[in-house]
Every structure is written in C-alpha cells, then in structure tokens.
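Record copied across here:
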Amino acid sequence: MVCGARAWKEVGRWDRLPPWKPDQSESSPESRFRIMTSAEEVDVLIVGARVAGSILATLLGIRGRRVLVVDRATFPSATLSTHFFRGSGCGGALERIGVLEQALATGAPRLTREYNADALSGDLAIDPPQDPGEVGFNLSVRRETLDAILVERARRESSVDVRERTQLQGLLREGGRVVGALVRSGEGTSEIRARVVVGADGYSSSVARAVGAQVQEAVPAFRVIYYRYARGLTGPQGNPPDGPEFSLGDDELLYVFPSDAGTTCVALSANLRDYALLRGDAEAGFHERVASHPFVRARAERATWSGRLWACGPRPVEARVPAGPGWALVGDASMHVDPWSGEGMDNAAAHATLLADAIDDVLAGREDEADGWATYHRRRDEHGIERMRENVRLGRDLNQLRDD
C-alpha cells in the first residue's frame, strides 16, 4: 500500500499549449488614486512575500536585480497551509539560498522515514522518506516560522526591498503591456514602474485577475482539508518524531507532520460527501475522525491541542497561463493543486526557481520576452502539469492509493 503523498512523482512530459493572449485593455488606475510619492523604478515588482515570492526575490537579488516585494500581511504571520515539504523540492531551495540550517534551528525534526498506515486493515509500513533529494530528508515548518525566515533572507540582498502592510491597488499599462502598479501602504499610494510585475499572491491572485490570465486547465473541487496543532505527540512507536504519518481510511487521509517548536500538525483530507457532514460541528467532527485512525487514536488523546481548527474548503484545481506582456505568475497564482498530496510548497519553490531563470534571461537580453515566457511556461508544465492531473485522478477517491 502507498499512502498519502507517496503518490507524488517526478514526471517529464509537456503537452503543447496555445500561446498566451495578451490583455489589450487599457485602464487608468492612477486616475482613481491620489499618488502620494513620485514614481519608483525597479526591475521586478513581486506581489506576495511568502514562499514563492520571497524565494524568487532572493534568487533575483543574488543576480543583482532591483526587486520590490509587497505584501499586505506582516511577518511572522500564519497562512492556510499544512507546510510539509520534500528535500527535493522546497528543502532544496532553502539549501540553495542558504537558510536550510536556519529552518532546522527552529526545532523542526529531520523527517528521515515515513509511516504509512491503513486504518481499515490495521497494517503499518515504515518506508524511506519520499523524494528527499540531495538534502536527504523532508521537513515540516509552520508558515509563520518559515515565511518570516524567507522574508528576512530576501531583505539581506542589497537590491531587494520588502514592504509589509502594502497592498496592490491596480496595474499600470502602456500599449497593451503591464509596466508597473499602484500600491498602497499606511503612507499613501505609490506608483511603481517595473519591467516585470509578478503575482505571487496565491490562489485568489489579484494580479492574475487584473491581467485576465487565461485558465489553462481546471477541475472542479473534490476535497477539503482540516488541520489543528498538537503538542506532546510522540512517534507511532513511542519514539521521538522522525517522519510524517499517513493513515488511509475510506477515501480519507489523516496526516501527522512533526513540525517546529515542538508542534505537530494533524490534518485530515475528506471528500465532499464527508465535508457536508463535518460542517455542522467541524471541530467535534475533526476529532472524531482522528480517533477513527487506530495508529493515532491513543497518542492524540494524550496530546495537548492548541489553537483553532483550520479549514480549507472546496477549491478547484487550476493551472493558469503563467506569463504575458510585462507580467508573470508563480506559486498558487500560477498552479493550484488540491492540498491532499502536499505539493504546494514544493511547486512554489520549484516554479520560483524557473521563473527567476526566465526573468533574468529576459532582462539580460538573452531571450526576448515572448520566448522567455514560453520557456517558463514549458518548464513549469514539464515539472507540474502531470502531477496536477495525478493529484486529481487519485484525489477523487483516495482508496486508489491502496493499489497505486
């Protein structure tokens, strides 16, 4: 039996796609806002400072590009995420930009094995970690912890500026291309002129909406996920936590992710049928479902639960065309998969790396913009599109994992 995100695979096929169609509409957002400062000029404006945005900013800053990152949040702060990631994905990106040891210093244990349980048969398998890459292990770090590390790493590049409590107000266009944006902070509204504007602002991306990014593939929602934090949760054999746990029920997957600062993320992926039942009293239903998984039940009863129950309701799986004249998308703004397979942070880090290469090639004149964006689009799909389809295929009924 292969449980949980063990179904995550490396793939290498790219399907030919129609070229992007630029948004030719002209808008004048500056007419609707009072500009409080003179226009600033940067190479790249990134909207969103979490995993994809901060990694992208750091990689561009290393290459000397002038980068402004804006985010309406402040850091540290939590965001909806179960935050498990693989050494071959986000872990490798952390090592590349020099913050992997800082992430480990938070107390997050190296996840050097994996526990796969069948809640129906009672079987338990202990497996090697999935896709640990050259790092050699996987990790789970809460987003309030990890995102703050990434923001501060970006700020260490002299050509990168990160501004918190700053929100996108509108895009600037000239001749059918994006040439910058208006952003608002407590000091007023500012005009930012940029050679590229990047939306790293999540599934409900304001940048994607403003440019009218085409939907390349979409599948209606089919699952939901709930999670909560616990302390004092030992490993399945009474050992210190050293691996994630995946417990497969009837089209239901329970996750246990040992994380930073002595916390453990306990998550549940349910289908839409069970979601309808859980909505009445989600917290009671969540703990009832946790107790139905025999390898976790007793330990969960002894644990100390903290914080509220987090929930991600039904969201479509979706890939958008990720670039156009003067703009690009990355992270969930570019490709959103259902969180049951735990690929979001790995995709964000991988695609940020691909986009950094494309932007640098375009700005340096090694490729013209259309070719650079086509290369990014192709490489993103080579990395992620078949995984997205596999996420959908298996996620429709997780019982398939027993035979996959």
